[in-house]
Amino acid sequence: MNDVTLCLWYDRSAEEAARFYARTFPDSHVGAVHRAPSDYPSGKAGDVLVVHFTVLGLPCIGLNGGPGIRPNEAFSFQVATDDQAQTDRYWNAIVDNGGQESACGWCKDRWGISWQITPRVLTEAMAAGGDRARRAFEAMMDMRKIDVATIEAAVRG
């Protein structure tokens, strides 16, 4: 058992989400699935209540807590990518599976969880500061999915 585990709230779809993440990202898997021992406000005995899973090595719990709480952008997974192919693969998997595009490398999966699919070239440019960071930042501001070649060109000036 880890000292810290991320708990995500779902409305009856925690197992489906966990299985999608396990198929999509390396070092991800579904662990224990626990069923409710009795009826509860948004479900019945035997319904999937809690799912233990790992996303990119990060331990998580999916809680089928019902429709009362919806995820928002105050929380997101930030996934560092090495190149355009990896960026495209993760972004397209999320968006093409009922998700939604947003700006600056952000998207939401079909369950409302936000993801930042962020190429390392962008993160490195921002960390460098100065003109490199400004050019990379300005290029990113016009993007939905990050275009690695455009960021690389912006960094070069």
Question: Any overview of this molecule?
Answer:
A hairpin with a 4-residue loop joins strand 6 and strand 7. With 157 residues, the chain is of the alpha/beta class. It starts with 5 loop residues before the first strand and ends with a helix. Helix 3 (120-128) crosses helix 4 and helix 4 (130-140) runs antiparallel to helix 5 (148-156). The longest helix is centred in the middle third of the chain and has 13 residues, at 84-96. The chain contains 5 helices and 8 strands; from the N terminus they run βαββββαβββααα. The strands form 2 sheets. It has a 4-stranded mixed beta sheet with strand order 1-4-3-2. Strands 5-8-7-6 form a 4-stranded mixed beta sheet. The protein folds into 2 domains: 6-64, 2,3-Dihydroxybiphenyl 1,2-Dioxygenase, domain 1; 76-156, 2,3-Dihydroxybiphenyl 1,2-Dioxygenase, domain 1 (Roll).
Kindly summarize this structure in a few lines.
By secondary structure, the chain is α/β, with parallel strands linked by helices. Helices cover 34% and strands 28% of the residues.
> What gyration radius follows from the Cα positions, in whole Å?
18 Å
**How many DSSP helices?**
5
Number of strands: 8
Largest beta sheet: strand ordering: 1-4-3-2
What count of domains describes the coordinates?
Answer: 2
**Largest sheet, strands/sense/barrel:** 4 strands, mixed
